[in-house]
Amino acid sequence: MRFHVLTLFPEAFAQPLQFSIVARAVQRGQINIDVADIRDYTHDAHGTADDYQFGGGHGMVMKPEPVFEAAEATLSGYDAAERAQIPVILTTPQGELLTQKLVEELASSPAIAIICGHYAGVDERIAEGLATRPVSIGDYVLTGGELPAMIIIDAVTRLLPGVVGSPESVAGDSITTGLLQHPLYTRPAEFRGMTVPEVLLSGHHAEIDRWRRRKSLERTLEHRPDLLSTASLTNDDRRYLAGLGYAPPDAGQVEGRGADHAQD
Ligand SMILES: C[S@@+](CC[C@H](N)C(=O)[O-])C[C@H]1O[C@@H](n2cnc3c(N)ncnc32)[C@H](O)[C@@H]1O
């Protein structure tokens, strides 16, 4: 997988991607991170890459010419058929929310280009005529698209075959399974008076699996009950959740909630 990042701040990428699993993926040639400096594609002696807004307003806007030219130069090595398969992501709080589903989709691309906005944002013609995939990493606003780009690179990289040692660990992650993951413990079995649940030391694999599943359901109900409506649940799961007081929305809950709100 090749990542092509377009940024005004290439130095931001020097350290954060040079450790642990992502760095190993680079060393093994599983990924390649190519960071292009948009300022190299400006046309004046000052390297002007942003300008005032037409119509007035606060904050500078990134100019279209250097971003288009940086993208064209970066992607010039691909033929038209390959180019058509490469998502050109624009990082923006206005984009589609980055979810594990979107990460999985991106991981099947041959390459990904990521445009990092900055200041007040980018000229709208970049969104109209260059980017194919506006992506937001969450409902908050950052100073630039550099951290979102790194998050996308990290999340996609760990899904690529052979990057994470055991594929089972990736498959069992929170969200990926549709639920939050069960609690994890390692040695020592007792630490500052806090003990590891007995069942995990028992060696009874069926019991351990059952405990983990139930903890996963409990946590999801507590922290992300919204996930339960789309999670793949067994009858045993449903019975357990019902015992915890969970009633699925299709069991009259939606109407019930609507009625509550109507009284607000
Ligand atoms: C200060 S923000 C600009 C926000 C813009 N004025 C707006 O209201 O949509 C500067 C840049 O940071 C990046 N950015 C900020 N928040 C982001 C988010 N939640 N997801 C992805 N990128 C974000 C984008 O690249 C954006 O162009």
TrEMBL record:
Q: Which CDD domains match?
A: TrmD-like (cd18080)
Where's it found, cell-wise?
Answer: Cytoplasm
What reaction does this enzyme carry out catalytically?
guanosine(37) in tRNA + S-adenosyl-L-methionine = N(1)-methylguanosine(37) in tRNA + S-adenosyl-L-homocysteine + H(+)
Gene Ontology molecular-function annotations: tRNA (guanine(37)-N1)-methyltransferase activity
Keywords noted in UniProt: Cytoplasm, Methyltransferase, S-adenosyl-L-methionine, Transferase, tRNA processing
Query: Which Pfam families does this one have?
Result: tRNA_m1G_MT (PF01746)
Question: Which residues lie within the region annotated Disordered?
Answer: 244-264
Protein origin, superkingdom: Eukaryota
| EC annotation from Swiss-Prot or TrEMBL | 2.1.1.228
**Gene Ontology cellular component?**
cytosol
Q: Name one GO biological process term.
A: tRNA N1-guanine methylation
* tRNA methyltransferase TRMD/TRM10-type domain boundaries: 1-229
> According to its UniProt record, which protein family does this protein belong to?
Belongs to the RNA methyltransferase TrmD family.
Q: How does it assemble?
A: Homodimer.
Q: Record's PANTHER family?
A: TRNA (GUANINE-N(1)-)-METHYLTRANSFERASE (PTHR46417:SF1)
Q: Which NCBIfam families match?
A: PRK00026.1, trmD
Q: What does this protein do?
A: Specifically methylates guanosine-37 in various tRNAs.
Please identify the protein, giving its name as recorded.
tRNA (guanine-N(1)-)-methyltransferase
What is the organism of origin for this protein?
Geodia barretti (Barrett's horny sponge)
